[in-house]
Design goal:
Radius of gyration: 19 Å
Largest sheet: 8 strands, mixed
Distance between the termini: 57 Å
Shape: globular
Order of helices and strands: HEEHEHHEHEHEHHEHHEH
Number of strands: 8
Helix content: 25-40%
Number of helices: 11
Strand order of the largest sheet: 2-1-3-4-6-5-8-7
Strand content: 15-25%
Structural class: alpha/beta
């Protein structure tokens, strides 16, 4: 059996996550991925913003930063620029990363800086009051949309792809083994990598929208998921409402910290 305890700050337990929340599944998938890569604790810096997902950094025994709302990628960028040899992982949620932190998300992808973003998408601001987020589906209810959201939603993975990320993948907490493989590939990839994780929030989202328990919501993720290998042969009508999972983008592009180092060396050469 996998020894999770060696990566955890056991004195910070029990977890704050609600019963039925999928965040613990993501945590365990991430630890299995890190263990397979063979990274030491000192080689990792894990950065989070604010929200349920972002409490994860308090439970893991790495170099960690629990930062301000929407600023996790900005702090992580600073860490990566000072310590380019470190593996920097950002843990964030759909509201944290793509609402208040939206511009940081877009521009980190554009720069293709070597960060791995694990983005928990539960369609809601869970911890801060159940407000509508950029991924709340049309007509679904939130504390700030009691009669149903009338906004169109972000395609988080598509946004990262369009902005210039090297690696983009989407998984669900139902398929935990596949999820840790996606996270492993994302960490190993040089450049800006995103793993969008579909995970249930039975308390702030499911309860308002009568989606059932956490277990029932995870089952709904299973039924709605379509592997990308199968999706390529399906029509837009067949894919309506489906969650396409797997590796969506995997490409080699110039990376920001490497380019920055080349510029330093070039200028130093001119100075001597």
């Amino acid at each position: 059996m996998f020894d999770y305890d060696k990566y955890l700050r056991l004195n910070k337990l029990p977890l704050i996550w609600c019963a039925g929340c999928g965040d613990g599944i993501v945590l365990k998938a991430m630890l299995r991925a890190i263990d397979r890569i063979g990274l030491s604790k000192d080689e990792i810096c894990m950065v989070s913003g604010i929200g349920c997902s972002s409490r994860l950094t308090g439970y893991v025994d790495f170099n960690t930063l629990h930062t301000t709302h929407g600023r996790a990628i900005a702090f992580a960028t600073g860490v990566k620029m000072v310590k380019p040899e470190m593996t920097v992982i950002v843990v964030t949620g759909d509201g944290d990363a793509t609402a208040i932190g939206g511009n940081h998300y877009i521009h980190a992808a554009r720069r293709n800086i070597d960060l791995t973003v694990i983005l928990f998408n539960n369609h809601i601001y869970g911890m801060t009051g159940g407000q509508v987020s950029p991924t709340t589906p049309f007509s679904y209810k939130a504390s700030t949309a009691p009669f149903g959201s009338v906004e169109n939603t972000f395609n988080i993975s598509g946004l990262a792809e369009a902005a210039g990320a090297s690696f983009v993948a989407r998984g669900t907490v139902y398929d935990a083994i596949k999820l840790d493989r996606l996270i492993e590939k994302a960490i190993r990839k040089k450049g800006f990598s995103v793993v969008e994780v579909m995970t249930p929030c039975p308390t702030a989202f499911g309860r308002r929208n009568r989606l059932g328990s956490g277990a029932e919501m995870i089952k709904q993720l299973k039924e709605a998921s379509v592997p990308i290998e199968k999706a390529v042969n399906m029509t837009p009508e067949q894919l309506n409402g489906k969650i396409i999972t797997g590796i969506l983008v995997d490409r080699d592009l110039p990376e920001y910290t490497a380019n920055y180092q080349k510029l330093i060396e070039q200028l130093q050469g001119k100075a001597t």
